[in-house]
Amino acid sequence: MLITFVTSFLFLFLQLVVPTRGETPPLASYDSIFLDPNYIVNGNFPSTTWQAKDTIVQWAEDLVSLGPWSVMNKSVTPPSGDKHDYMSWAIYWWPDCSNVRNTTLLPPEQVWTECTYVQRDGDINPDVRTVVDDVGSFANLSDAVLYNTLAWSLNKDNDSASVYSQRTVNYINTWFLNNATKMNPNLNYAQMHRGPTGQMGTKTGVLDAHPITKIVSSILIMRMENNTDWTDDMHNQFVSWSNQYVQWLETAKIAIQESEATNNHGTYYYGQLAALKLLVGDMDGAKNATETYFNNQFQQQINATGEQKHQELGRIITDSIIWRRWLYTNAQILSYLDPSSNAWNKTTAYGATIQTALDFILTLNPSASNESDQPSEFYVDVAAVAAVYGDPTHKYTSFLSSGDPNYAAQAYFLWTQPLAGGTPPPSNSTSSRKNGGFAVVPAADSKVISIFSNLLADQLEGQTAAA
Predict the structure, then answer these.
(1) What's 121's DSSP letter?
(2) I want to staple 258 with a disulfide (CB 3.0 to 4.6 A). Which of 14, 70, 115, 203 is the partner?
(3) Three-class DSSP category at 179
(4) pLDDT in tens, the chain (467 residues)
(5) Nearest CA to 314 among 91, 30, 121?
(6) CA dihedral of residues 275, 277, 278, 283 (deg, nearest 10)
């Protein structure tokens, strides 16, 4: 009976003093972002970002079971014979084995090398993710590094927060530095077409590494906050790896071809090049990379109405989001490198700005192109534009709230500030960072505690007397 009473007491007490927490949004992978390390390190976040902090910590936990990641985990060896080489297959290419003998008995390895591969635009070959998935592993790695770094930074005053930075270090070490598991610093076998003539990577493979901006942001944050888990030795090793990869980006034939692309491929190229040059300390090179992009590709990418050129029919929303995503990333990098650059207000040859580009998407009807599931993918972009340009008419926040009423609980709400939305934690609460979390626990009302304490004392006294 005593046990039953105590259990009931604790349940009622917790119901009164601990608020019911909202459900954490599903894990999201923002295609590419660069966070200003100064903003994160300064930690001057609005009180309304408490839910976003919760989400970041939870997402860091959600990714634990998937890692660590390594190029050595794939079951197929690249044509080089070295599994340390990153490898991916072009997603829209399918085998035509009509000219190969024993077509019904071909093992997969023979299909990949002997059958002619042909392109089916928009039709994804499922084996590009089920057989070889270095691209998916790298995306997950980048997210895990970002969210664990942020979870550590947000909780660094708590001794237990080191679990997050230790994970970050382990993830980076496994993918880039450990001799047994590291990736060679090149993309020679990225986005292979396969078949007799497709056993080397293609220029589009350079896009595979675009999430590296998240890793660069994370390392800069750890360095600025003097994280002891990310040692000087590890940093120097990563700088060495990055320098080798930068050299590949600037000299490899397929990389140079990608740097000349006038569409979003060129945008992605200069974004990752600038981020890596920033990391290795080549500030002039990083600034030159972003300015090269804004003075060349950017000039012809967006017309006066905000519409992109060379847009594929039938994929209006999807292409618009992809094209614009790295506009923001490149502007974020240049703004960090040179706050006086006025990167966000640079104009194309047609007078369009980044804001013009995003505003155009808001005028589109997703259902008209059978893309009703796409708008949520660029909520982070809408938030970024609102934070930079302002939102005096609430156009952007209205769009966000119409699609996601709880957008303030999304991780991006932390770094896209100032942005309206969200609510401060309960006024009678104190922030608990126990176990690295951001649980908001109200300061218990003294009268409530007194009532339950007296009830418990009376019950215990009665049990003692009965004994």
Answers:
(1) T
(2) 203
(3) coil
(4) 444 444 444 434 434 334 445 689 999 999 889 999 999 999 999 999 999 999 999 999 999 999 999 999 999 999 999 999 999 999 999 999 988 876 567 899 999 999 999 999 889 999 999 999 999 999 999 999 999 999 999 999 998 999 999 999 999 999 999 999 999 999 999 999 999 999 999 999 999 999 999 999 999 999 999 999 999 999 999 999 999 999 999 999 999 999 999 988 999 999 999 999 999 999 999 999 999 999 999 999 999 999 887 555 445 556 666 667 778 999 999 999 999 999 999 999 999 999 999 999 888 877 776 666 666 778 999 999 999 999 999 999 999 999 999 999 999 999 999 999 999 886 644 443 333 344 333 333 333 334 444 444 444 444 434 44
(5) 121
(6) -140
How large is the C-alpha radius of gyration of the chain?
Answer: 26
Amino acid identity of residue 210, one-letter, is: H
Q: What letters, b where the CB count within 10 A reaches 16 and e where it falls short, cover 410-435?
A: bbbbbbbbebbbbeebeeebeeebee
CA dist., res. 25 & res. 46, Å (int): 20
Distance CA 463, CA 467 (A): 6
The answer to whether residues 194 and 93 touch, using CB atoms and an 8 Å cutoff, is yes
Query: Whose CA is closest to 300, among 252, 342, 266, 255?
Result: 266
- Element housing 190 (H / E): strand 189-192
Nearest of 287, 219, 289, 198 to residue 249 by alpha carbon: 289
Is there a contact between 24 and 55 (Cβ–Cβ < 8 Å)?
yes
State how far the Cα of 35 lies from the Cα of 220, in Å rounded to an integer: 10
The pairing of beta strand 189-192 with beta strand 87-89: parallel
